[in-house]
Design brief:
Length: 256
């Protein structure tokens, strides 16, 4: 991957990237709400979870509609979770960061796709302590497929990355006797499939570091006990995004 965009994107490219990212962020909310319950992400159409009223198109504009409606359903006035605009805003942020760091390139598109999957995984894991296979297993396939261009020979690094990361987390899960689940193993493999073996090591390092700091703070503040479960998926997701955007620069700094 390139560490910087070859050309400065035009203002039209920035606007298009923000709009597409916001729309995809809205779709991520559907995935986050339905995948843990094994529901279709296609049908039925978007509706209020409280009164089941279908949401009209003008009330389903990413970020804008939440503000216009004051964070409440138009039909029943039930409050809308802040998770919806937060996910949409994060999707826009990831899209613009990928464009800024990698430009309108194939590498930028790969990191953007990974970032969207990691956002969905993060919120599902935080809400349910589960990482659905319906994201990670297709994600592994998509991650590998993105390396077929420009040359299938580029598959070597992501194949090694997914096997190495998956094997490492499998050993940790076995040694921890349930402290880490199969979802984390498949998530690590997915990150490896997208980033390759060098950058997935960066992702794991950042994830472990962030998770350790967060866990220590939760203990100090009394928000979690020693035996309380803390999902690791969000920290590995953070590591994957950092590695995708800044991994090569971090590796160059470390090796120097």
């Amino acid at each position: 991957m390139s560490s910087a965009p070859p050309l400065l994107p035009s203002s039209l490219t920035w606007a298009f990237a923000a709009a597409i990212s916001a729309v995809l962020g809205s779709f991520l909310n559907v995935c986050i709400s339905r995948l843990p319950h094994r529901q279709s992400i296609v049908l039925p159409a978007s509706h209020c979870p409280t009164c089941q009223t279908p949401i009209r198109y003008y009330d389903n504009i990413p970020l804008v509609s939440f503000g216009v409606l004051g964070g409440r359903c138009r039909a029943c006035r039930a409050p809308i979770s802040w998770r919806y605009p937060l996910v949409e805003a994060l999707a826009v942020m990831v899209g613009l960061l990928a464009l800024w760091r990698l430009g309108p390139t194939w590498d930028g598109l790969r990191v953007f796709a990974l970032g969207l999957a990691l956002i969905a995984v993060t919120f599902i894991d935080l809400e349910t302590l589960l990482i659905p296979d319906r994201i990670t297993l297709p994600g592994i396939v998509v991650g590998l497929a993105t390396h077929l261009y420009p040359s299938p020979r580029d598959l070597v690094s992501p194949l090694v990355g997914l096997l190495a990361a998956g094997a490492l987390f499998y050993v940790v899960a076995w040694a921890s006797r349930g402290g880490m689940g199969g979802g984390d193993i498949k998530l690590a493999a997915m990150v490896g499939a997208f980033l390759g073996w060098q950058l997935v090591l960066v992702a794991i390092f950042v994830g472990v570091l962030a998770g350790g700091i967060a866990g220590l703070l939760l203990l100090i503040l009394g928000l979690k006990g020693r035996k309380d479960p803390v999902p690791f998926g969000p920290f590995l997701a953070l590591g994957g995004l950092v590695a995708g955007l800044w991994g090569e620069a971090l590796l160059a700094w470390y090796l120097a």
